[in-house]
Please model this.
Amino acid sequence: MENFMENQDGEFGERRELMVADLMAQGILRTDAIIRAFMQVPRHVFAGSENENVAYADYPVPIPSGQTISAPHMVAAMTELLQPDAKDKVLEIGAGSGYQAAILSKLVKKVYTLEIDSALNVFAKTNLAKAGVKNVLVIEGDGSKGYAKAKPFDKVIVTCATPEIFDSWVRQLKIGGLLIAPVGAGFYQELVRIKKTSKGLEKTNLGAVAFVPLRR
Ligand code: SAH
Model:
């Protein structure tokens, strides 16, 4: 006999549809494949059981160690800015819950995500396994050094506020590759997109954002 209390994705699925419809109406979600990824990934799983009921509101969700999953509009905007391609190898700095990595996992070939906090390293791995995501590798370590073992990357996405664009990230990026990061040391940072070309770096400023700080 079906147990309705145990099968809750029905309700969460409806909330997810509303979240996606809202982000599309605002013009934040635009690309078909990215819309599908947002429909597929169960954000409530990444929010954890204590916060699953607020997972689909357009706010950041608190996760262990005083960190947060970015609000859906921010994850959507950053994912669109990264122009993910099915062939891409992506480096993320700050695995947190694993949600951003799970979204990217539906859009690219492989995601490497670095997490400095050991409790969150386990949290991200557990959530990704629960969601059935297989092409994300969570690595415990300081993301400011990048992940030379798997270089070069097509894209780099930084999901904690960084005081600077570290050389390691630029070095580990392919020519033609994109990097996005919230840059700054204050409560607000500037969201920056950098394209690495054979002639140097092309930088675009995209406005003010608020991320939790990179830790060392
Ligand atoms: N992308 C995550 C949210 C990230 S919150 C998600 O989708 O849930 C920022 C994360 O960056 C936190 O988990 C924090 O522990 C991590 N972090 C902070 N400094 C770091 C560093 N130097 N290297 C790797 N991760 C770091």
In short: The first strand starts at residue 61 and ends at 63. Residues 9-25 form the longest helix (17 residues). The beta strands are 61-63, 67-69, 89-93, 110-115, 136-140, 153-158, 173-183, 189-197, 200-209. The radius of gyration is 17 Å.
